[in-house]
Amino acid sequence: MIRAFDTLTKNFDILQKRQENISSNMANSQTTGYQSKQLFQQTLREVEIHNYQNGARLDQRNDLGTFTFGNEIGGINLNMEKGAFEETGRPTDFAIGTEGYFAVRLPNGQTGYTRNGNFVLNDQNQYTTQEGYLVLGGNNQPVLAENPNFQVVTFANPQALTSEGNTYFQSNAAVQAVENPRVFQGYLETSNVTVADEMVAMIQTSREFEANQKVLSTTNETLRKTVNELGRF
Questions:
Q1: Where is the Flagellar hook protein FlgE/F/G-like D1 domain (predicted)?
Q2: How many distinct structural domains can be found in the chain?
Q3: pTM strictly above 0.85
Q4: Cα 232 to Cα 199: distance, rounded to the nearest angstrom
């Protein structure tokens, strides 16, 4: 009975994380260059269980086989599909027509990656992000307005990208420069979130919450009756 509470706790934790992820995708449905994320879950490792009710005196180990205590979040899948292009006509807006990411210099000096090409020019006539991060060119130097040779890179394992928030990623995986990338000036790539899919996922998650709440209520009532019955002896 107590094991049921443990399994339900794991289920509620998974559902909460799924709901948080859906909410994040929905909140960024209008964010330029945003790539949606999907959580996937996996079954916990099987463990061996036993008691000591074997033998004539019921004091010897009795192996009962294996048991799985539920599921857990296994990781996050990044949706690599390109979002739709929106024409802005602004000369500081850029969209990548191929796979890959713009490279930018983060405040900690490391390189970050994004598909958000909503840039501006600083006082040195260098392209920066809206947050002021320098956009890097093929020589790993800031990109100048008169020579926008953007550095566009891909990764051997894109799913190894670590989200830093605000459409920025970092990665320890090998970086490969995209040769002759197609970069369109005056366009932005919109979010690739499909609102309808996220709404369906939210409804499904809500129904799973309700189902688990009913199981919790039933389990709690059964335990209450069991304790009351034992109290009579």
A1: 95-137
A2: 2
A3: no
A4: 50
CA angle 158, 105, 118 (to 5 degrees): 80
Whether residue 14 is predicted with pLDDT greater than 70 in this model: the reply is yes
Q: What is 99-162 written as a DSSP string?
A: S-EEEEE-TTS-EEEES--B-EE-TTSBEE-TT-PEEBBTTSSBPBTTB--B-EEEES-GGG-E
* 129-157 pLDDT per residue, tens: 999 999 999 889 999 999 899 999 999 88
CA distances from 95 to 15, 21, 85, 143, 222 (A): 35, 26, 7, 15, 59
Provide the residue range defining the domain that includes 93: 85-189
The answer to whether residues 5 and 219 touch, using CB atoms and an 8 Å cutoff, is yes
- Give per-residue pLDDT as tens, 97-124: 999 999 999 999 999 999 999 999 999 9
Instruction: Please name the residue ranges forming H helices in the chain.
Output: 2-27, 195-230
pLDDT attached to residue 173: 81
What are the b/e assignments for 55-91, b being 16+ CB within 10 Å?
eeeeeeeeeeeeeeebeeeeeeeebeebbeeeebeee
Residues 175 and 221 in one domain: no
